[in-house]
Specification:
Length: about 200
């Protein structure tokens, strides 16, 4: 039987079966969503950190989500990449059970799930220098906890990114979170206050 290490209700790490990971994930999501309802005062700090990072990495192609609601904001970062002539910027759109990618523009429509999505023709994206993805939490081993639909796990298996960076709030960067075999890890975590290579 497959086993994963997960944090128990007492905060200690224990060995759990793969089947037991799912309720653990649900418990984490419930707790983090409740925290996000209270709100975070980080403003555009993620975008400022990302702007510096993309310059340091000399990235010429970037795939990045359009933030909405309680997600760490990517708005300023997207505008920066849009007006940086050397950067090709792609943003996602839900197509069935997967994401497709479109060159970023102001021509967008609201998806029933609440986020803005780009209009325009999809691009067959297979490789980028940097992919920026959302999460509810991440840990110091590079595991991320998404909202449970698996869009980005599937996308990361289809697109090669030299660096994958996940955005979370400071209190969502944890020592360890529950994960399953199909969850794709990341190399970099960006919080409200720092960028950490894991």
């Amino acid at each position: 039987m497959n086993e994963r290490k997960c944090e128990g209700h007492d905060g200690k790490i224990s060995r759990m079966s793969a089947e037991a990971v799912i309720p653990q994930k649900q418990s984490f999501r419930k707790r983090i969503n409740a925290s996000r309802e209270v709100g975070h005062a980080c403003g555009h700090s993620h975008s400022q950190l990302l702007i510096d990072y993309v310059w340091e990495q000399r990235a010429k192609s970037v795939a990045c989500y359009i933030s909405f609601g309680d997600e760490p904001s990517t708005n300023i970062f997207l505008r920066h990449c849009q007006y940086e002539e050397r950067i090709d910027l792609y943003v996602p759109r839900v197509q069935g059970e997967d994401l497709e990618w479109v060159l970023f523009s102001e021509d967008q429509a609201r998806h029933p799930l609440g986020m803005n999505e780009p209009n325009g023709e999809a691009v067959p994206l297979t490789e980028v220098d940097l992919m920026v993805i959302p999460a509810l939490a991440a840990d110091r081993q590079g595991h991320r906890l998404g909202r449970g639909r698996g869009f980005y796990d599937r996308a990361l298996k289809q697109i090669f990114a030299k660096k994958v960076i996940v955005l979370v709030h400071d209190d969502e960067f944890l020592d360890e979170i529950p994960f399953e075999a199909h969850d794709v890890s990341v190399q970099v975590v960006c919080t409200c206050s720092e960028i950490v290579t894991v």
